[in-house]
Design brief:
By secondary structure, the protein is an alpha+beta fold. It is built from seven helices and 17 strands.
């Protein structure tokens, strides 16, 4: 754990913690848990952190975000919970830039960007962990955002804000299930001109002459579809067998449609890179 709750309800990180200033009453940040934790000093190999003792009442419960490793969806839900509860209580803020221009087959890099990219030996889509509680400064692919959400503890992830057109937005606001995406769109509550990461299970695939529809399994009667138009067929190579029944994350801009008097939500995608499979 990188963060803990002080006796006054404020959040403190392990790097900021000072016994003389903050005292020794420390608790798990998960509101379903809040068990006592202790501080473990760092060294040249390990950053400082908080932990339970495993004795008496100092054990995480099953509903706690630190009880076990989390799946992508579990991590997203915990981060949403923590960011909603703790960002105004001293939770550290880490600004991360999301730039997915290179997913777009229509996007042409500027010469300067290509030259800069050539100088870099590492894959910019990979998440590089400089220290065990430092997140990457930028995200450039769906693979890297999935890796981010399953590689870090939820308190570290909860510190992440995304720079969206000059506005700092909690990362949990942009990663949503199909029902939340639908409600944001139809209630006019979504961020303007911003792409969303939407996850769900592929339930049906319809291939037409000029468009492919990839329908998510309905949740609470919410209908959500990905669309690939014929112009981009050559960039979208997944077969029905590879997609059917799979839990996936997709990125794109949300749009409204009405089918048989039913409001539906759609997202146009352009290539394989706009989808990432979730375990």
């Amino acid at each position: 754990m990188n963060s803990a709750i002080l006796h006054n309800g404020q959040v403190i990180t392990a790097r900021e913690y000072n016994t003389d200033v903050h005292g020794t009453r420390l608790f798990c940040i998960d509101k379903s848990c809040k068990v006592p934790v202790i501080f473990v000093p760092g060294n040249e190999n390990v950053s400082p952190y908080f932990k339970t003792t495993g004795k008496h009442d100092s054990k995480h419960n099953e509903g706690c975000g630190f009880y076990k490793p989390l799946t992508f969806v579990e991590s997203v839900k915990k981060v949403e919970e923590y960011q909603g509860d703790l960002l105004d209580k001293g939770m550290k803020e880490t600004l991360v830039r999301i730039n997915l221009n290179k997913l777009d087959p229509d996007y042409e890099s500027k010469v300067a960007e290509r030259e800069q990219s050539d100088k870099k030996k590492q894959d910019p889509s990979e998440v590089k962990i400089k220290q065990d509680n430092e997140t990457p400064s930028s995200i450039s692919s769906l693979k890297s955002i999935v890796k981010l959400m399953v590689s870090y503890e939820p308190d570290v992830l909860s510190s992440i804000l995304v720079n969206v057109k000059g506005q700092k937005v909690p990362i949990s606001s942009l990663i949503v299930d199909q029902e939340k995406a639908h409600n944001l769109l139809w209630k006019e509550e979504m961020l303007p001109k911003v792409g969303y990461f939407v996850y769900g299970v592929v339930d049906a695939i319809l291939r037409r002459e000029r468009v492919i529809y990839i329908n998510f399994k309905p949740v609470n009667n919410v209908l959500f579809s990905l669309m690939v138009f014929d112009r981009y067929f050559k960039h979208f190579t997944y077969t029905d067998e590879e997609l059917m029944g799979k839990n996936i994350l997709a990125w794109g801009h949300l749009s409204k449609n009405t089918y048989n008097d039913k409001n539906t939500t759609e997202m146009a995608i352009k290539s394989d890179k706009y989808i990432e499979f979730l375990k």
